[in-house]
Amino acid sequence: MSDTAAPPTDPGAAHPLRPGSVLVADRLVRAHDPEIACPAAALVAGDLRRRGAQPVRGTLPLAAGEGPPSAAPEGGDRHAPGFTALIPGTDPPVGLGAACAADPADAAAERAAREAVDAWLAVAGTARTVLLAAPRSFCAGVERAIEVVEQALAQRGSPVYVRKQIVHNTHVVADLESRGAVFVDELDAVPEGATVVFSAHGVSPRVHQEAAERSLRVIDATCPLVTKVHTEARRYASRGDTVVLIGHAGHEEVEGTLGEAPERTVLVETPEDVAALEVADPERVSYLTQTTLATDETAAVVDALRARFPALRGPASDDICYATTNRQDALKSIAEESDLVLVVGSDNSSNSVRLVELAERCGTPARLIDDTGDIRPEWLAGARTVGLTAGASAPPGLVEAVITALGGLGPVTVHEREITRETIHFTLPSVVRPS
Ligand code: SF4
Predict the structure, then answer these.
(1) Residue 91 in contact with residue 11, Cβ under 8 Å?
(2) Strand pairing report for 70-71 and 82-86
(3) Which of 3, 127, 130, 394 is geometrically suited to a Cys-Cys bond with 411, CB 3.0 to 4.6 A?
(4) What is the pLDDT of residues 265-318, one digit of tens each?
């Protein structure tokens, strides 16, 4: 989430700070000197939010002296108390700072400002290496789904209704919402005859039927690789097999796939689930998988299925998609060398959560962050090498923002480790394809 933007301010001028607000420095100024950038401002702002303060962004005067934070100079800061510092070892210099309203009653904001600056300074001044996994961020299915909504808005105007989150990322959803998309949980919230987009995760035939009954103008943004799994589900069920779907209960993609042949499909997550399976005919069992599972964990479940049902049939190539596989392989190439892994993604993003789990299985502490503001200073204590990646639904700009912010704590060297280059592109559905 972005901070409330503060209007441009002159150093020494009063900022429009309300009680409880804390001004986080984007820049520090000192008489006659060039402005000093504060790339770690988003980190400080995130910390303040967790402390219950409301951050706004602007310019602060640099306190006299360098190094540890100190109260802003007398007479130079009418919104003091302010806490500012330069980060040792940076050239050109970078700094960080925060200040609250000059209100003696606002002790909580003053404490939050001081503690937030102190917390980040405690892990600043250290040279760090960022190991950047590649591929990372948007996959072809996510890019296509977002473009479907953008094209629908451009061609049909607002509102365009979207059933469920178009992709599992809070930033993508907020951005499309700000441009006129309306996200709904179910079709009964969509007015009769309106345009509705189905998300990248796919829907069951029941949802298509309901849309037809309500005369909705459907644009289906289901990823073609999810559609492939639906097709397999219908094919396996139609030949009389019990279809074992490996996936996570309640995930939207799983709900959609289960709906293709609900009477013939059973869901399993683990080898233990396989051991407990009851099927009508052990000679007629097929399996499918959710597209965003961990490759190693899924292999163990398939092995358990094959051990119980030697005649097991499955897809010619794995249903776990290329993007999920590539992001996991790229992360494996950096995880063991990292002291900490940061995965950019939302907590309902299956492939992002799988990346966190994978890093942990490699023995490295890992954290899922929606954006830079979620990073906590204590995670960086002792972390000189930070592994960085992003799930397939996370915008690439969020990764860049993390690198920028880390550079506000000290010198950062970035090494990108690219294990393969993705060239896959999916064409748009014909109903929204620009002519
Ligand atoms: S993660 Fe895979 S299945 Fe999901 S949208 Fe991306 S390419 Fe498609």
Answers:
(1) no
(2) antiparallel
(3) 127
(4) 999 999 999 999 999 999 999 999 999 999 999 999 999 999 999 999 999 887
Average pLDDT over residues 357-367: 98
Q: Which two tokens stand for residue 358?
A: 């994978």
φ, ψ (nearest 5 deg) of residue 369: -130, 135
The CA-atom distances, in angstroms, between 125 and each of 40, 121, 431 are 12, 8, 54
CA of 377 to the centre of ligand 1 (A): 33
Residues 6+ positions from 11 with CB-CB distance below 8 Å: 29, 59, 60, 61, 76, 77
Name residue 390's beta-bridge partners: 344
Largest CA distance in the chain: 85
Ligand 1, closest atom to CA 292? Answer: 1
Please report how many Cα atoms fall inside a 13 Å half-sphere around the Cα of residue 327, on the Cβ side: 32
Q: Is the pLDDT reported for residue 70 higher than 70?
A: no
CA 433 to chain centre: 27
Span from the CA of 388 to the centroid of ligand 1 (angstroms): 20
Q: How far apart are CA 384 and CA 128, in angstroms?
A: 5
Which residue segments constitute the domains of the chain, with CATH numbers given? 4-124 (no CATH), 129-137+322-418 (3.40.1010.20), 140-223+426-432 (3.40.50.11270), 225-308 (3.40.1010.20)
Q: Which residues pair with 183 in a beta bridge?
A: 162
pLDDT (tens digit per residue) in 23-63: 999 999 988 889 999 999 999 999 999 999 999 999 999 87
Element (H, E) at 367: strand 366-369
Q: How far is CA 381 from CA 43, 302, 318, in A?
A: 14, 40, 40
Q: Which of 408, 422, 415, 433 is nearest to 36 (CA)?
A: 408
Integer distance in angstroms from the first to the last C-alpha of the chain? Answer: 36
Q: Can you name the residues that pair with 135 across neighbouring β-strands? A: none
Annotated catalytic residue: which of 232, 253, 255, 260?
A: 253
Task: Yes or no: say if 344 and 391 are a contact pair by the CB < 8 Å rule.
Answer: yes
How far is it, in rounded angstroms, from Cα 122 to Cα 114? 12
Please give the pLDDT value at position 104.
Answer: 64
Inter-residue contact 58 to 23 (CB < 8 Å): yes
Within 10 angstroms of residue 300's Cβ, the number of other Cβ atoms is: 13
351 annotated as a binding-site residue: yes
HSE of 142, CA atoms in CB hemisphere, 13 A: 26
